[in-house]
Specification:
The protein is mainly alpha-helical. The protein contains 30 helices and no strands. Residues 1-19 have a biased composition (Basic and acidic residues).
Length: 491
């Protein structure tokens, strides 16, 4: 939403009275000699009709007036902000001048306790940054996004008609994170990271699908950064990322049938997939098992999800954020998702949710001793539902994330012993699942199937005999390169 000449920011003291150019120029001269509330108010009114009146020197004086006026006069500050906003509408020269001056003044306004100042600054920043990359980059360097994140999560923002403006502005600014050299000063504080990760949760039920998608992309901009991933692990915020993924899947599951449903899926599914891989990378962090033990509530929830296979109803669970102990921040009714929308039944309908859980737990299993993995197979039979889902062609053929994640997880389960591998392969749907994987249309999935077939046959004559026929067919299609006598341990 770009401001036009009809959207200029008038001075409330002057209402809609048509300004006089001579008065505006007189105010300009007065401002250059020494700023005053009267001169700024007149210039604010004049800048609505004559946006070219403020020169680069005047823009600098206006910025100084804002920095000083915040402590002395909100009227002066408001008038100066309006002057800058009107001067930058469709004026790249003014935008470049402001970007060159930096945005520390904007950060001060966004941190101010006065809501009018904050929202006026959002509108002005939107106009400055719209289609102006240099201004967006400078805003990121000056960390304008930090107070914007806090403002976006405030109760007032959740109920505001200007929410889309704020979300777009945040998206423009944070979109430059990957192109700007990362350093310690670039990192968000733990509090800001939590505020950021909570945004999709807050807006899950009240934002348009487009705004919700933008919020997810903003979060992913940070979550793709290894340093942020380490921060998420050490601060124990992984459950927030998981909830983000669940909410994304929920929006796809509950959209109405028809063309809009297809558009929603096309918009959100790539973001959901990105979240799966971010969760996988986070779980692969060397500090993950120090913060999340196999018996922790979060990991237990994921293990139960994998074991249920999408059929267990059970008791409705609280959202992952509360389970992780991150609910200390006071939330209004608008922040809270109704319980019926966060039930375990909702998330367990999605094989993709099980795939995401497999990515997290599977990476954790890589560093666990074999004795910790054995009970998952021998006692909990956590593999059974995975075999069942893989044997259903609709699941395996429709979404590559599902068979790839399942196969990798099953490979990790083969690690402990020959006894465990035999038990895994005894399932009545194991061979059909392996066939589906090894004959999949996607080369990567076929490789996943071969890898799992080899892992099950490692030092295990029973499984080598059990899958001899399948191994021969796979070897024939691959030029004879697949043998059940592979001795290399699974990765």
């Amino acid at each position: 939403m770009q401001l036009t000449s009809h959207d200029r920011l008038p001075d409330p003291q002057h209402g809609e009275r048509a300004p006089d150019l001579q008065q505006a120029e007189a105010a300009l001269q007065s401002l250059q000699i020494g700023s005053s509330d009267v001169a700024l108010s007149a210039l604010a009114a004049g800048s609505k009709a004559y946006p070219d009146v403020p020169t680069p020197d005047v823009l600098r004086i206006l910025v100084e007036a804002i920095e000083c006026g915040l402590n002395d006069s909100l009227e002066t500050t408001t008038a100066a902000i309006r002057c800058i906003g009107n001067a930058c509408i469709d004026n790249d020269s003014a935008r470049a001048t402001i970007a060159g001056l930096g945005f520390s003044w904007a950060v001060l306004c966004l941190h101010h306790e006065n809501d009018e100042i904050k929202w006026l600054m959002v509108k002005v920043l939107y106009n400055i940054c719209s289609d102006h990359e240099a201004a967006q980059i400078q805003c990121y360097r000056d960390r304008v996004h930090v107070p914007l994140i806090s403002l976006c999560g405030s109760p007032q923002s959740l109920q505001s008609r200007d929410t889309s403006t704020l979300i777009d502005l945040l998206f423009w600014i944070t979109g430059h994170k990957a192109t700007i050299q990362n350093n310690d000063t670039d990192l968000l504080s733990d509090e800001s990271v939590l505020e950021l990760l909570m945004l999709p949760y807050y807006y899950h039920n009240i934002a348009t699908v487009e705004d919700f998608a933008i919020l997810l992309e903003i979060c992913l901009t940070f979550l793709r950064d290894p340093s942020v991933q380490r921060q998420v692990v050490k601060s124990r915020y992984v459950a927030c990322v998981w909830q983000m993924f669940v909410d994304c899947e929920d929006r796809m599951d509950h959209c109405q049938a028809g063309e809009y449903a297809q558009e929603t899926k096309e918009l959100l599914k790539p973001l959901s997939t990105s979240l799966i891989w971010c969760l996988s990378d986070i779980a692969a962090n060397e500090d993950f098992t120090q913060q999340y033990s196999p018996s922790s509530a979060f990991i237990e929830r994921l293990l139960s999800l994998i074991a249920s296979g999408g059929e267990e109803t059970g008791t409705k669970s609280k959202d992952a954020i509360e389970q992780a102990g991150l609910g200390a921040r006071q939330r209004t009714e608008a922040h809270t998702i109704p319980e019926e929308n966060t039930s375990t039944e909702t998330e367990r309908r999605s094989a993709r949710s099980i795939a995401a859980a497999c990515q997290i737990v599977g990476n954790m299993l890589r560093v666990l001793p074999p004795q910790d993995i054995t009970p998952l197979v021998m006692t909990r039979k956590i593999h059974a539902k995975l075999w069942h889902i893989l044997a259903e062609p609709d699941y395996a053929d429709d979404d590559d994330d599902v068979p790839h994640s399942f196969a990798g997880f099953l490979v990790q389960l083969t690690r402990p012993s020959v006894e465990v591998r035999e038990f895994l392969a005894e399932d009545v749907e194991a061979e059909e699942s392996l066939r589906v994987l090894c004959e999949h249309k996607t080369p990567q999935i076929r490789q996943d199937g071969i890898r799992l077939l080899r892992a099950l046959g490692k030092e295990c004559p029973v499984n080598q005999e059990r899958f001899r026929g399948l191994a021969a067919r796979v070897a024939g299609r691959s030029g004879g390169g697949t043998s059940m006598q592979v001795e290399a341990a699974p990765a």
